[in-house]
C-alpha cells in the first residue's frame, strides 16, 4: 500500500467537488452522458442554445465525434465579454516578464476586451476571415493571448507553433494548415537571451507561398529585416478600432489546430472545435484546481503546448479567473524565480511539469525557502509521470505539506484532464493520476489480443470507452490518419498510446508511452521525426532513435547512427549532428547521446528491432529477450560494447 495524503479539511469541506459529490457525479456522467453534459454545457454562454448534446461513433472506418452540434457561440465572448459587467476591472492576465527588473503587467478584463478587439480588427484588415488559418509563433507575451482570442473572436483557426521550434518546423506547419498570416514578434527574450524570432520566421516564410503575410509584434524593439509581406502590429493597432463584434461560430467549427508528434511520420495537426472544447477546458480548470474567485492561478507552460491553450488561456478566462503568464524560465536570474513570482503575485494554484520540479529540486531547498509561499493552496503537475522523490519534494518543500498535488494525466488530443485526483475529494498517492474525470471511462486492455483486463491490481494499455466534449475531432486534412492512429488498434475505443496500471484500490498509474513516442522534459517527440532529421544529413546512412532514463528530463534522446561508407566517426561529427537536428526540428529535439552503430539489429525482413535498442540504451541488456530472429545477431554485441551511457 502506498502512503496517501488526505485533502486539507477546509478544502474537503468547501471544494467545488467533495468526496461525496465525486462518486455521485461520476456515476451520473457514465450512466447518462447526454444528460450530464447537457447540463454542464450550460456553464458557458451560447448564442443559439444546443438541442443536441452528443453524436458520436467510434466505429473504425466511420469515426465521427460531435458535441452540442446545433449550438452556436463565440469563445472570445465567453472568455472576455461575458465577464465585463461583473468583473471588468478585475485582472484577467498578470504578465511577468523575463527579467524581474522589468515591470509586471496587470491586464483587466476590460483591457483584454480592447486589446483582443484591436488585434481582431487588424487581422480582418489583412483579409483574415472565418475559417482561415493563422499561425502564431510568439514569445510568452500578452499579445500571444490576444492573438489566440482575436482569432476566436472572428472565427479564424489558430495554430500555435512553439517559439523554440526551428524555421523548418515552422514552415512545415504554415504550409500544412495553409495559413494566411503568421503572427510573430521581433525577438523573444528568455532567460536573459533574445531569440531572433522574426529572423526565424523569415527563414520559414522563404519556403511558403508569397501570399502568406507576417504580422510582427514589437517586443524588444530590435532592428529586424523587413519585407513586403511584413506588417507592423504596433503601428496597425495604434489606429485600429477596439470594437469588434464576436462572430457567431458553430460548436463544431474548429477553434484551433495544434501539431503534435506521433509514433510515425511527421507531426499531425490535432483539431479541436469550439463548443465542447470550451466546456471541457472550463470545467476541468475549475474543478481540478478547485479555482475560486479572487485566486491567482499560475500555469508555467508555454502557449505553444496544449497545456498553455487549455490552462493558461481558455479554461481560466472562460471561468473569469486571474491567470498568470510568465515569459521567462525557472532558473533566471536564479533558481528561486518561480517561488519569487509566487510570492510577488500571491499565487494560489501553481501548475508545472515534473522536469521543472526535478531541475529545481537539484538546486537545493534554500531557493524555495527564501520565498514566502503561504499563498499557495494547491500544486499541480502535468506532462509525464512524476517520480515519488520529486513528488515528495514538491509536497514537503514547495507545498509545506499543506497543498494537495493534482497529478493531471491528459494529452494534446484530449483537450483537458482525463485523469487526476480532485483536491477536495481524494486522498492523493505520490505518482498516481488516480481517478477519471467526469465522463471518462478508462479501460485497460491486454496489448497482445485487445481483450479487456478486468479487476484491480492489473496492467495493460490504456483506452477510453466513450467520447467526452474536449476530445479532438480529426487530424487536419487527414481524417483517415485520425482513425488509423487512435481507433484501429483496439476497435471501438480511443487508444491513448499510454500504458497504465490499476492498483488494488482501483486507482490509475500511467506507466508511459507504449508506442515510439518519447517524452523529453514533458515534450512529446516522435522517434521517427528525429530519425528522419538525422538521415537527412549527407553522412548518415541510417539512424534509430529511442528514449532512455534521464535524471532531469525524464527521458533523454539516444541515437544509434550508421554512417555512409567512407565517412568516419568523430567528436566533431557528433557535434555537427546535434546542431543539425536542432536546426531541423528545434533545441528540444537535440540528441543527448549519439552512438556510432556499424549495424542496427534487424529482423530478416529488415525491420529494426527497437525493443533491443531500447534495452541497450536503458543499460538493461541482461533482458534483451529473444534475439534469434535477427538477421545478424552479432551486431548486438558491438552495440553493447560501445554503449554511450555506461555507469
Ligand atoms: C498534456 C500533455 C501527452 C503524453 C501522454 C503521457 C504523458 C502527460 C502525464 C503524462 C504521466 C501525467 N503525460 N501527463 N504521463 N502522468 N500526469 O502533456 O500533452 O504533450 O500531448 O503529451 O504525456 O504519455 O500520452 P502532450
Description:
The radius of gyration is 24 Å and the shape is globular. The protein is 31% helix and 23% strand. The model has no long low-confidence stretch (mean pLDDT 95). Strands 5-4-17-16-18-19-20 form a seven-stranded mixed sheet, with helices on both faces. It has a five-stranded parallel sheet with strand order 7-6-8-11-12, with helices on both faces. By secondary structure, it is α/β, with parallel strands linked by helices. Strand 26 and strand 27 form a beta hairpin. Ligand 6R9 binds next to helix 12, strand 20, strand 24 and strand 25.
Order of strands, main sheet, comes to 5-4-17-16-18-19-20
Number of helices: 21
Structural class: alpha/beta
Unreliable sequence segments:
none
Amino acid at each position: 500500500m502506498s502512503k496517501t495524503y488526505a485533502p486539507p479539511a477546509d478544502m474537503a469541506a468547501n471544494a467545488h467537488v467533495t468526496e461525496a459529490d465525486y462518486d455521485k457525479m461520476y456515476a451520473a456522467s457514465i450512466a447518462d452522458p447526454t444528460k450530464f453534459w447537457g447540463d454542464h454545457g450550460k456553464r458557458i454562454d451560447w448564442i443559439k442554445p444546443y438541442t443536441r448534446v452528443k453524436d458520436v461513433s467510434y466505429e473504425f472506418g466511420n469515426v465521427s465525434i460531435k458535441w452540442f452540434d446545433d449550438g452556436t457561440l463565440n469563445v472570445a465572448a465567453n472568455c472576455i465579454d461575458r465577464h465585463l459587467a461583473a468583473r471588468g476591472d478585475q485582472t484577467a492576465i498578470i504578465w511577468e516578464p523575463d527579467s524581474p527588473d522589468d515591470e509586471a503587467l496587470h491586464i483587466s478584463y476590460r483591457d483584454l476586451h480592447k486589446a483582443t478587439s484591436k488585434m481582431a480588427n487588424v487581422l480582418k484588415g489583412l483579409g483574415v476571415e472565418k475559417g482561415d488559418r493563422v499561425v502564431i509563433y510568439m514569445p510568452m507575451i500578452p499579445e500571444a493571448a490576444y492573438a489566440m482570442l482575436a482569432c476566436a473572436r472572428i472565427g479564424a483557426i489558430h495554430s500555435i507553433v512553439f517559439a523554440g521550434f526551428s524555421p523548418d518546423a515552422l514552415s512545415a506547419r504554415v504550409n500544412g494548415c495553409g495559413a494566411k498570416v503568421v503572427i510573430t514578434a521581433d525577438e523573444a527574450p528568455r532567460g536573459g537571451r533574445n531569440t531572433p524570432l522574426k529572423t526565424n520566421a523569415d527563414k520559414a516564410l522563404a519556403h511558403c507561398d508569397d501570399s502568406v503575410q507576417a504580422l510582427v509584434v514589437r517586443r524588444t524593439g530590435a532592428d529586424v529585416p523587413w519585407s513586403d509581406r511584413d506588417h507592423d502590429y504596433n503601428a496597425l493597432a495604434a489606429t485600429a478600432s477596439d470594437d469588434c463584434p464576436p462572430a457567431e461560430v458553430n460548436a463544431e467549427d474548429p477553434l484551433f489546430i495544434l501539431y503534435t508528434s506521433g509514433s510515425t511520420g511527421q507531426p499531425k495537426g490535432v483539431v479541436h472545435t469550439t463548443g465542447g472544447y470550451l466546456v471541457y477546458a472550463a470545467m476541468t480548470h475549475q474543478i481540478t484546481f478547485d479555482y475560486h474567485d479572487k485566486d491567482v492561478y499560475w500555469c508555467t507552460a508555454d502557449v505553444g503546448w496544449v497545456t498553455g491553450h487549455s490552462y493558461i488561456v481558455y479554461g481560466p478566462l472562460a471561468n473569469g479567473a486571474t491567470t498568470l503568464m510568465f515569459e521567462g524560465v525557472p532558473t533566471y536570474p536564479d533558481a528561486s524565480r518561480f517561488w519569487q513570482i509566487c510570492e510577488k503575485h500571491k499565487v494560489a494554484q501553481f501548475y508545472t511539469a515534473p522536469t521543472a520540479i526535478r531541475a529545481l529540486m537539484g538546486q537545493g531547498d534554500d531557493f524555495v525557502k527564501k520565498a514566502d509561499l503561504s499563498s499557495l493552496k494547491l500544486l499541480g503537475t502535468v506532462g509525464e509521470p512524476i517520480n515519488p522523490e520529486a513528488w515528495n519534494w514538491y509536497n514537503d518543500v514547495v507545498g509545506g505539506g499543506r497543498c494537495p498535488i493534482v497529478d493531471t494525466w491528459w494529452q494534446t488530443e484530449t483537450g483537458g484532464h482525463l485523469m487526476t485526483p480532485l483536491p477536495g475529494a481524494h486522498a492523493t498517492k505520490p505518482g498516481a493520476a488516480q481517478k477519471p474525470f467526469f465522463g471518462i471511462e478508462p479501460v485497460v486492455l491486454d496489448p497482445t489480443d485487445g481483450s479487456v483486463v478486468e479487476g484491480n491490481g492489473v496492467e495493460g494499455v490504456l483506452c477510453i470507452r466513450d467520447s467526452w466534449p474536449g476530445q479532438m475531432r480529426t487530424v487536419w486534412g487527414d481524417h483517415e490518419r485520425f482513425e488509423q492512429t487512435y481507433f484501429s488498434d483496439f476497435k471501438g475505443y480511443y487508444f491513448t498510446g499510454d500504458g497504465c496500471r490499476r492498483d488494488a484500490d482501483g486507482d490509475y498509474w500511467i506507466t508511459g508511452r507504449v508506442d515510439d513516442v518519447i517524452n523529453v522534459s514533458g515534450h512529446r517527440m516522435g522517434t521517427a521525426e528525429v530519425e528522419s532529421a538525422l538521415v537527412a544529413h549527407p553522412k548518415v546512412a541510417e539512424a534509430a532513435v529511442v528514449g532512455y532514463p534521464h535524471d532531469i528530463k525524464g527521458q533523454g534522446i539516444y541515437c544509434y547512427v550508421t554512417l555512409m561508407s567512407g565517412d568516419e566517426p568523430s567528436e566533431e561529427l557528433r557535434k555537427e549532428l546535434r546542431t543539425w537536428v536542432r536546426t531541423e526540428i528545434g533545441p528540444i529535439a537535440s540528441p543527448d547521446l549519439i552512438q556510432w552503430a556499424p549495424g542496427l539489429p534487424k529482423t530478416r525482413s529488415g525491420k529494426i528491432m527497437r525493443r533491443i535498442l531500447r534495452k541497450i540504451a536503458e543499460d538493461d541488456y541482461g533482458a534483451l529477450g529473444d534475439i534469434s530472429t535477427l538477421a545478424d545477431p552479432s551486431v548486438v554485441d558491438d552495440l553493447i560494447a560501445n554503449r554511450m551511457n555506461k555507469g
